Amino acid sequence: MTVAFWCVLIALFLPYVCTGVAKFSQGKFGPRQNHDPRGFLSTVDGVAKRADNAQLNSFEVTPAFAAAVIIADIVGNAQPVTLDVLAVLFITSRLLYIICYLADWAMLRSIVWVIGMGLIASFFFVSM
Fold it and tell me: Which terminus of the chain has fewer Cβ atoms in its 10 Å neighbourhood, N or C?
C-alpha cells in the first residue's frame, strides 16, 4: 500500500472531521438534533456553518483526488515517490483549506483551494 493510497483514505475521512466541528462547536448538538442532523446543520452559523461548508467542499473534491491517484497509479509512468509526495501535499492543502475556512480567511482559503486543484491535475501531468 503506497503513501498516496493512505492519503486517499485520509481524504475520505476529512469531511467527517469538519462535520464534528460543525455539530459540536456551538454546544447545541444532542440526541434530539441527531434525528435530523442535516436540518440542524442548516440552522448553524459562524464557525459551525463554515465547518459545514468545508465538509461539503471536502465531499466534492475527494472523488477527484481519489480518481487522480488511482489513474496515475494505473498508468504507471510516474515514480511512486512522486505520487506519494503529491498526495501528501494535497492532504496538507486540504488541512490548510479547512483551517482557512474555520478561521474565515476567505482569500487565503481560495488560494489554497486552487493549489489543491492544481495538485489533483498534477497527477495526470506527471503520469504522461
Answer: N
